[in-house]
Amino acid sequence: MEISLQNGKAICVVNDNIVASNVKSLTEILRTALKDCDDYEEIIVDLSKTESIDSMGITFLIALYKKYNTSDIRVKLIGVSDAMLKIFNMLKLVDIFDIQQ
Amino acid sequence: MEVRIIFNYTSEIKSSFENTDMEVEKIISSLKKELDMDKEVLFRIEFILRELINNSIEHGNKMNLEKKVMLQVEVLSRIVTIDVIDEGEGFDLDKVILHIKNKELLRIRNRGLLSIIGFGFKLKVNGGHVICVGEI
Question: pTM of the predicted model, to two decimals?
Answer without folding.
Answer: 0.92
